[in-house]
Specification:
Oligomer: single chain
Number of helices: 7
Protein name: Histone acetyltransferase type B catalytic (Partial)
Structural class: mainly alpha
Number of domains: 1
Shape: globular
């Protein structure tokens, strides 16, 4: 049943998010889920752990964007620090996912450039998903 599956997914993700609920400014907010948490949430939601992790990254990016939008006293360095924490969290996942690809590179700089490129693709996709619906529709004149 499709609705039952959606309910299970929603419940699993809500539980996982609730367990992770910390303020954006808490350094632990951008910590990755443990493998056990990923597997448990994935089993409950009947999706793969990577999908749970991506949903969590989307959630955390949305929380970060809202925090930065609604908190007016952010210094540039504070904003950069929070964005850096998010970037490192995602790159940690990308590093695991692309371990084989990364082994082809000889230097640390090449590996970092590859990960940055993958991160930018990922971030662009996330921003597209999180963008308000009216921004996704093409304007007609």
């Amino acid at each position: 049943n499709h609705n039952n599956g959606q309910q299970q997914l929603s419940q699993a993700l809500d539980t996982t998010i609730h367990q992770q609920s910390k303020p954006v400014t808490d350094p632990e907010f951008f910590g990755a889920l443990s493998d056990t948490q990923l597997v448990q949430a994935a089993a409950t939601a009947k999706i793969i752990p990577r999908q749970v992790q991506i949903v969590m990254e989307l959630y955390k990016l949305q929380q970060l964007q809202e925090y930065l939008h609604f908190t007016t006293n952010n210094s540039a360095s504070h904003k950069q620090e929070l964005e850096k924490r998010f970037r490192l969290m995602v790159k940690k996942r990308l590093n695991k996912e692309h371990r084989e690809d990364l082994s082809r590179f000889r230097t640390k700089a090449e590996k970092q450039a590859f990960l940055e490129q993958e991160f930018q693709k990922c971030l662009a996709g996330y921003n597209e998903i999180l963008a308000p619906k009216n921004n996704n529709q093409k304007k007609t004149s």
